[in-house]
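Researcher: Next sequence.
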Amino acid sequence: MPKPLSELSVPDGPRWGPPVLLLLAIVVAILPFWVVSVPPSTDLPQHLSQIFLFEETLAGNRPELVVTPWYYPNTLVYGLIYSFWLVADPLVAGRLILSALAAGWLLGSYALARCRRRQIESWLIGVPLVFNFLFYWGLLNFLVGWPVFCLFVVVASRRPGWLQAAGMAGTALLLYYAHALWFLMASVWVIARFVDKQPGSWRLSLASLVPAWVLACIWYPQLAMNRQASGVSTMPEWSTMPLERAKLEYFANAAQGGLQGSLEQMFVIILAAWILLAVVTRWRQLDSEIDRPLFLAALGLLLAYWVLPWNYMNTIFFNQRWLPCALVLLLLALPAPRMARVYGITVGLGLTLIFSLATIKSWRDWDEEQMGGFLASVHQLNKADRVFGVDMDGGSIYVKGRPGLQLSSYAQALRGCDTNFSFTEHYSGIVQYRNPAHVNPTRELVWSPFRSKPDHLVGFNRVLINGDANLHDFVRQRLNLDPIDDSRATWRLYRISGQP
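Model: Next structure:
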């Protein structure tokens, strides 16, 4: 028989101790967002552009667009972005939204630990997981769902009854509007709980999911139709098979995946050692001290990581996105290793500080390497300009992923220009095309910029390019471009030869 929650080990010491640790963790986690000109968050400028287009649509300046219907999911984050947009310029608003989501990540897991009466060191050792690829790639819709999922688990674990069912229905709807995948995962978790014969009323719990499922059944056929019409891939794609996902490099990239080097792999090894030590030192009491609802949620997310495709319905990282959250849940579900609490807290704080400092160093190096001339080029644009922008350089020796992939969208967020690609085509933002969008021939060039040809520049009058000197010489000749100024920076602005 598992122990009642009130008997489980809880943070000891001064009552103000855990809140102070939470505050320290939040400050250390958000600091990197404020030390560079633009944070390396790939999709962030596209999300900011959605807010610009939202205002334009409401003002009647974009008759080809409509505000996304109220029953569409994945829109919750735009309320948060818009609130920052109203009080700050787009660059500051971008930093604020990333900071808020990082704080929400930590607050959600902290609240889950406190409400489920888990040890503070079990939470703290997982804090460095906030430095993960979800932030680097700017998957803001998904990130906002994590603290809501934590809230859903807390509500679902309360005393069964109509009040709990109403709370579950409300948080289920909130999850749906955060991200449909989080709502789907919550539904699977609810069903799995009753298969595992955990306490609660399965009728009330399942009934609480019905309102959000009704909306999902209305929305999904429209999404599939619109995405097929826009020419994007809607078939599942596996870049790796399940066994390959056990390799340390792949696993570390999925758990964090932000910094070049071996630091993330070392952290995964430390987490594995922590989990092994917890199991070994608590073996006799493991069955009574494990948190079964959290453990079941962790297993569900780990299973998603192992078996789901890499891409489905044009949603990339379809499997990897679950791993950072799964590891947080697993750390909370297991009891902490049997050791003096101060050792666990010291390790957790030390690792968090190391990752924050390493992130700041790498981001500042990336800023110097990749962002030269970017803001100066963007500020030369006018609202009437139509901008074709691509990142020819592709990557960085400091930061993983493609941080420059969508940077040209700042031309719209900051200056109001039209660009060669917009998330409006995805039908998962706050605005979308009134009629199904035609296939955009320049969309794929964002990912494959070397396929760009002069024909692709029809309708554009400005070209924004990132690359080294040799790449700029190559692009100028291939695309018949003239420089706007004499800049020798990595980002340069061009006009098309023969145009003003």
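Model: Confidence is low (pLDDT under 50) at residues 1-14. The two ends are 78 Å apart (CA to CA).
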